[in-house]
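Morning run. Coffee first, then this:
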Amino acid sequence: MKLIVTGATGLVGSEVIRLALRNPAVTSVVAIARKPVLAPANVGSESQTAKLQSVVLESWTSPYPESVIRHVKDADACIWALAATPSQSKDMDFSDVTAICYDYTMNGLTNMAAHASKPFRFIYTSGVTVERDQEKTLPFLSEYRLMRGRVENAILDFAKQPDDQGVEVTVAKPGGIESPGRDAISAPFITMLETFGHTPTVHLSELAAAMIDQCLYGITKDPLWGEDLVEIGQRALSPDDYLR
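And here it is:
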């Protein structure tokens, strides 16, 4: 499988790349970013790191240039892990936040679908608090959560278009992400996440492995809630695969 990854320098994207490079069923990993992407630590042999193709994209809202298209061509799947997080967005103009979260994503999906293999599987990394129902009144981060919900809706609508047959999509909606080297998730935050009715936390490696598994073997449902990600990720991982 040829896999595209965006958000490759972030927490989730870098772990997706690490596990994809370790997975013998993944033959090529195309990391699209604003700057060159290096293979993460703890990947394994040199032959595994050689599967990584780093592709620099300068304009994320324009048609992809030929220098990017030639790497996107014939890709089998994409894990989109690029977004402006709530903490990042606090000091940004909301139009810029929307451009990163909505415009970059939809432009990317459009460009990739036009040149990728079919079926082309696209997995969008979101979160349990994101709301698709645009009529809902939300008690916190309302503007941000509804905007991210519009992204989810747009991705799902894209796959339903007659001209885009062969594009399969789903959204991963974890709660808190546990990872070595990060502060433990606080009890009050876990309590808040539990109000959404799903497994409140997932290990970073399980999240990444679950999304790779869905790219490899087919999308099983939408959305993928925390409990789905834990179950799929644990099944897909060996003990040695976990980030330590």
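The CA atoms of residues 31 and 54 lie 5 Å apart. Good start to the day.
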